Structure formats: structure tokens, C-alpha cells
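Field log, afternoon session.

UNIT: design team B
ACTIVITY: writing a sequence onto a fixed backbone
BACKBONE:
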């Protein structure tokens, strides 16, 4: 629930995987995801029409299966 904790966890996971936060996607659906959207610059808004998050969203999805196509698009459709 804590927005700051989400950013801390993203940093931890990225460090563990040796990747940049900018090479990750963060899927969120609530206002408390805003810091994570800002931090990764790759926030994927899931089934939410919160205008504050819509402004920050990298993409919007309504079905989690859409993530597959999004990842393919980012990676050049491999």
C-alpha cells in the first residue's frame, strides 16, 4: 500500500536482476502506484480511468494478456 515502499521494492528487484528500472514494466491500478509509474517511466495502467494515473501511464490495458503484446512491441516483435 505504501507508495514509497513500491519504489524501494522496484529498486531491490532491479538490482537483484541487474537491470535498470527503465527496462522494467510496472503494472498498477491505483493512486498509490503513482510513484512507481514516475520512477520506472513504464507504468502500465490496468483497468483504471484515474486521470492522474492516465497522464503518467506508459500504456493502458484492460486485460493482462495484453502485456504479452506490449513486451513484444518493446522488444521489436520477436
Amino acid at each position: 500500500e505504501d507508495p514509497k515502499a513500491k519504489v524501494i521494492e522496484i529498486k531491490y528487484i532491479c538490482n537483484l536482476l541487474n537491470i535498470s528500472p527503465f527496462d522494467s514494466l510496472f503494472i498498477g491500478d491505483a493512486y498509490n502506484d503513482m510513484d512507481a509509474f514516475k520512477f520506472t517511466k513504464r507504468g502500465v495502467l490496468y483497468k483504471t480511468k484515474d486521470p492522474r494515473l492516465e497522464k503518467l501511464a506508459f500504456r493502458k490495458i484492460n486485460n493482462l494478456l495484453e502485456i504479452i503484446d506490449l513486451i513484444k512491441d518493446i522488444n521489436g516483435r520477436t
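LOG NOTE: The helical segments are 3-17, 34-40, 51-56, 66-74.
NEXT ACTIVITY: expression trials, pending approval
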